[in-house]
Amino acid sequence: HPPPPQPFPFPYKQSNMFSHCSVLFLLSLLPPSLSLPSFPGAVGFGSDNPGGRSGAVFKVTSLANDGPGTLRAALEAEADTRTVIFDVGGTITVTSSLDIPADTTIAGQTAPPDSGGITIRAAPSLSSQTMAVRGDNVIVRYLRFRRGASSAPTCCGDNLLIA
């Protein structure tokens, strides 16, 4: 006589497979509030936004508009996810809009405490917004935006555009 057919073709016992599936099902029911918050104290909608978590870290060391060590260089660098921190504080005068890519955290609170923080200001020649969010999962904290003196009419009416 041939051996009786096995009820389960996997190398696990039926009870073990059932318990594994049960655990996975129960884990899928956990509320999102158990996920890691975007930053300490984050609550409400978007409080679990990952931003640039686990990505490249770029350090801003210059308040210039462009060049090595600038905010623009950090935002334009090749990276899937990024966190931008500041070794300097003061005003960054931009001559063209800064585009924030997806999966980015800009941590303005990392500027030196005695520096007065980070202010993004439009140069007189800039007629568009100073900064534009161009993707999902973006966290911008502790930045100030100033329009700056401009004789050109504004196209967008704001210093920060979230598209």
Keywords:
163 residues; alpha/beta; four-stranded parallel β-sheet; three-stranded parallel β-sheet; 13% helix; elongated
Mind explaining what this structure looks like?
The chain is an alpha/beta fold and 163 residues long. The chain has a domain at 56-162. It has helices spanning 14-28, 71-76, and strands at residues 56-60, 82-86, 90-94, 98-100, 104-107, 118-122, 131-133, 138-141, 143-146, 160-162. The strands form 3 sheets. A 4-stranded parallel β-sheet has the order 1-2-5-8. The longest helix has 15 residues, at 14-28. It is elongated. The termini are far apart. 19% of the residues are buried. The mean pLDDT is 82.
Structural class: alpha/beta
Number of helices: 2
The stretches of 5 or more residues where confidence is low (pLDDT under 50) are none
Order of secondary-structure elements: HEHEEEEEEEEE
Helix fraction by DSSP (H/I, runs of at least 4) = 10-25%
Largest sheet: 4 strands, parallel
Largest sheet strand order:
1-2-5-8
Q: What's the count of strands?
A: 10
Radius of gyration: 24 Å
Report the portion of residues in β strands.
25-35%
Signal peptide: 1-35
Keywords: Glycoprotein, Metal-binding, Signal
GO molecular function, one term: metal ion binding
